[in-house]
Amino acid sequence: MNAATPHSEQAAAHSRLTFMQWAVCAVACLGFAFDTYEILVMSLVVRPALTELGNIKPGSPEFNRWVGLLFFVPFAAGGIFGLFGGYLTDRYGRRRILVWSIVLYGLSAFAAGYATSPAMLLLFRCTTIVGVCVEYVAGIAWLAELFPKPKQREAVLGYTQAFGAVGGLLVSGAYYTAVTYGEHLPAIHGGHEAWRYALIFGLFPAVPLMIVRPFLPESPIWKMKKSEGTLKSPNIIELFRSALRRTTLVTTLMVACSFAAAFGATHHIPRIVPALPQVQHLPRQQQEQTVSVVHFFGEMGNVTGRIAFTLLAVWVVSRRQLLRLFLLPSLFLFPLVLVFAATRDLQLLKYGLALLLMLMVAQFSFWGNYLPRVYPTHLRGTGESFATNIGGRTIGTAAALLTTQLANVMPGGNPSVQLAYAAAVVAFSAYSISLLASRWLPEPKGEVLPE
């Protein structure tokens, strides 16, 4: 026993994080939280924003069209420019692209709060999400390469992404605060609309990130290959050659399905809440407060899902089996919650949404852990970016438009019920396709990142 003790102590010492690694994790946590904030904030503010900026009646075809555009177009733009950002990440380094992407989406988030028309709001949401899409891909590649030990890497990627759930809680808290105390804040365009403050609040977490990240280390793997002249130039065509073709096609399709469930279903729930029997007769301020409370319950499920995934990721060896642990229940629970709870009872919807987000967000964490393990160093940012930005944010988010248009022709008797039914159809379809495609999902070759 005594002979084994020094070895055990040495292994424990090597597994401990250094001060700089803790700093990297802290910065990554804050970055992922801000990413989530910007992705989710529009689902809360879109109804009051369109009502004020365009004087558009909620539930009307024009309103549904603008909602679809605001949910889809920024992410389509983010997907296209994010793919280019992945190329830049592989070409010029992870850290440099991180810093500039944060500057872009921080300033854009602030500008969106001063929009004077739906078109202007759409423009600044596009530039905001472009920054988010680039930052996320660069951040995942950066973390994966800074922590080369397999178990440590899995834990770091899992827990830092889990902190992204805090961004969802911040959205709920920021909107509730703006609704309740907005009249005490400085006027914007002569008013105190809560949706404007909620958008502007998104700037604040970016300020320390802009200051700190330039002083953090570059990826040692990327830096070494760059200095030695052995770093290959990223080429998107390589993603479709025989060695990576299956990986690229299957992951792009499945990531698209993950995003389709989010943008085609859960992002629409805040618009359904005001029509529930327990909410529809409340004053407007109380309705908006209730929306933020329901959103908060959902984000608690977000936290639970990310933690559950992180714990399981270390122990479940097969990546296919790990993903199916969350895919299979999603296939049945999404339609159940959307068809029954979302159309009948506020309390059921609160807890149902928490359950849905637990399952859905765990799948997003899965992709953050899986994608760095299946692409080599010179293609890591490009490969991740193609699956996430083209598959998820360009193709998958089109489900937002599908849901809003499908809602116009669904049965149900009122716009909110029609929306809930449309969301259920879209979510069930997305998870059916994803579950089928998981059969061909490649297993990573070993725990070490491919060179």
Mean pLDDT: 86
Helix count equals: 18
Distance between the termini: 38 Å
User: How many beta-strand runs?
Assistant: 0
How would you spell out the order of helices and strands?
Answer: HHHHHHHHHHHHHHHHHH
Secondary structure category: mainly alpha
Task: Report the top-level CATH class.
Answer: Mainly Alpha
Please state the CA-atom Rg, rounded to the nearest Å: 22 Å
Spatial shape:
globular
Low-confidence stretches: 1-14
In CATH, the topology is named: Growth Hormone, Chain: A
CATH superfamily: MFS general substrate transporter like domains
Helix content bin: over 70%
β-strand amount: under 5%
Tell me the count of domains: 1
- Biggest sheet character: none
Per CATH, the architecture is Up-down Bundle
Could you name the key traits of this structure?
451 residues, mainly alpha, Growth Hormone, Chain: A, 18 helices, globular, disordered N terminus
Question: What this model shows, in words?
Answer:
The longest helix is centred in the first third of the chain and has 35 residues, at 19-53. The two termini are 38 Å apart. Helix 13 packs across helix 15. The protein is mainly alpha-helical. It has one domain: Growth Hormone, Chain: A (Up-down Bundle). The protein has 18 helices and no strands.
